[in-house]
Write a structure and sequence with these properties.
With 236 residues, the chain is mainly α. The protein has 8 helices and no strands. It is globular, with a radius of gyration of 21 Å.
């Protein structure tokens, strides 16, 4: 859809994006194939799981589109200071920032949706410990309760493999959503510009690279989670 901004044809899914989408679709198809075998009391649960799962496909599509726009606008940014940019580059920079923020917010939204999904599916009751919990809280809950250990180990290993770019993206997400906390305030006070200082823009290439890593991590997480869940249900 957003590729129309660049007068380009619609995306053709491939690679990790296609694999992640297919992993979710296979699970949905499995649920739907068993629809008539559920008891009346179980139906709402399976219906809820199917609706949530379809949401992952839409969310992944929206994340990829935001990431793509972010990358395309980044191609037009060459200057390190806002004052050195011409009008076209300033516009590209503003659009880059918009889609970069949109992308990293969507990235963590998908992970947290997966946490909610697994909490419901595995009946972890994470909300008893923490009313507002994240995907990472759910992973810890799985580890502590020793529930689906094989899945938890895979997801935790993946999380650690992408720890550095994910931490950087999460810091930016927290700054954007919560605006500031004590540590960030200290950071900002250290870097307060003097009057007349030029505005140094963020490291565009580094942010694009982190976003790509985060996107890969989300895709791989969905592939692992939904492949495991589908196989577990099939066995059950």
């Amino acid at each position: 859809m957003l590729r129309a901004l660049f007068h380009e044809p619609e995306r053709v899914d491939s690679g990790l994006l296609l694999e992640a989408g297919n992993a979710v679709r296979v699970f949905i198809e499995h649920l739907e194939s068993k629809e008539h075998h559920h008891t009346a009391s179980d139906y709402p649960k399976y219906h809820r799981q199917a609706i949530w799962s379809k949401g992952f496909i839409d969310a992944l599509d929206e994340l990829e589109q935001s990431k793509y726009c972010c990358e395309r606008y980044a191609e037009h940014i060459n200057k390190m200071f806002l004052e050195d940019m011409n009008a076209q580059e300033v516009e590209a920079y503003r659009l880059f920032v918009y889609f970069f923020k949109n992308a990293f917010i969507r990235l963590f939204s998908i992970l947290d949706k997966l946490g909610t999904f697994m909490n419901d599916l595995f009946e972890l009751k994470t909300e008893v410990l923490k009313a507002r919990y994240s995907y990472f809280t759910v992973l810890r809950r799985m580890h502590e309760k020793k529930i689906h250990g094989a899945l938890e180990v895979q997801l935790y290993t993946l999380k650690m493999d992408y720890k550095s770019p994910l931490d950087r993206l999460r810091n930016q997400r927290n700054m954007e959503i919560h605006y500031i906390n004590a540590e960030m305030l200290d950071d900002l006070m250290q870097k307060e510009p003097y009057p007349g200082d030029r505005i140094h823009v963020e490291n565009v290439k580094s942010n694009v690279a982190d976003l790509q890593q985060g996107f890969d991590m989300v895709c791989r997480t969905l592939i692992i989670a939904f492949s495991y869940i589908t196989a577990s249900i099939a066995k059950g």
